[in-house]
TrEMBL record:
PROSITE patterns: ABC_TRANSPORTER_1, ABC_TRANSPORTER_2. The keyword Chloroplast does not apply. This is Phospholipid/cholesterol/gamma-HCH transport system ATP-binding protein. Residues 2-238 form the ABC transporter domain. It comes from Arachidicoccus rhizosphaerae. InterPro entries: AAA+_ATPase (IPR003593), ABC_transporter-like_ATP-bd (IPR003439), ABC_transporter-like_CS (IPR017871), P-loop_NTPase (IPR027417). Keywords: ATP-binding, Nucleotide-binding, Transport. GO terms for molecular function: ATP binding; ATP hydrolysis activity. The keyword Iron does not apply. Gene3D superfamilies: P-loop containing nucleotide triphosphate hydrolases.
């Protein structure tokens, strides 16, 4: 579990994060949504320790990352897996080498043990035949799966995914969502997904935080978001025709139930 208490972050004289408090639950997909400039990316960088807030606490199982020394932060970061927006694979490395990279950096395993772990996670994301391929030889969806494999190879307690469906077709996006959800539950991870994809919100949004101009504007589940009366949230999410239809269907169901 990750808990934020009154987190504030400014750059020069501009306050970007304005007193945000929230709890991110283990074994759940916690989604942070919001338009560009809402503060969700800055907030996430504060959570993983890339930015230091001027005020507030960010607690990992009760331990405040803000007050940790360099050694403690390094130990914590080894428990954090990251899936970057562009997958961020090394073009000159094979899939196997990309996934093994965190093991080379942070583990004391011998080569055979590292190879076994790489085999395990590539099998988990259904890429058993991709070991010797280079990033240029695989599709965008496969690159995302390699990114997920690399993110979980150290068996992290926390998984952060930055726009995991960016650049993917709808069918592949659904597969990535399903994989993230399955891995979250399977390993009981605290998963945090930064996304603009409203289909992801409806598919895997166990816990959703909507950011607006540096504030936590709304918080709830994907079942609750359809019924939200928050005007700012509704203006954001119901720009999607898919969600407009979903809301109409839900409202019709409620009317029939009454």
């Amino acid at each position: 579990m990750i808990e934020l208490k009154d987190v504030q972050k400014s750059f020069d004289d501009k306050q970007i994060i304005k007193g945000v408090s929230m709890t991110l639950d283990a074994g759940k997909c916690n989604l942070i949504i919001g338009s560009s400039g809402s503060g969700k990316t800055v907030l996430t960088k504060c959570i993983v320790g890339l930015f230091t807030p001027e005020q507030g606490e960010i607690l990992y199982e009760g331990n405040d990352i803000v007050s940790m020394d360099k050694k403690e932060r390094k130990e914590l970061r080894q428990q954090i897996g990251m899936l970057f927006q562009g997958s961020a694979l090394f073009d000159s490395m094979t899939v196997e080498q990309n996934v093994m990279f965190p093991l080379d950096m942070f583990s004391d395993l011998n080569y055979e043990q590292k190879r076994a772990r790489v085999d395990e996670v590539l099998s988990r994301v259904k890429l058993e035949e991709a070991h010797k391929k280079y990033p240029a030889e695989i599709s965008g969806g496969m690159k995302k799966r390699v990114g997920i494999a690399r993110a979980i190879v150290l068996n992290p307690k926390y998984l952060f995914c930055d726009e995991p469906n960016s650049g993917l077709d709808p069918q592949t996006s659904l597969l990535i969502d399903k994989l993230i959800k399955e891995i979250t539950v399977e390993f009981n991870m605290t998963t945090v997904v930064i996304t603009h994809d409203m289909n992801s919100v409806m598919e895997i949004g166990d816990h959703i935080i909507y950011m607006y101009e540096g504030h936590k504007q709304w918080e709830g589940s994907n079942k609750e978001i359809i019924y939200s009366k928050d005007e700012k949230l509704n203006n954001f999410i119901f720009a999607s025709e898919f969600l407009q239809d979903a809301k109409k269907m839900r409202m019709e169901e409620v009317s029939k139930g009454q």
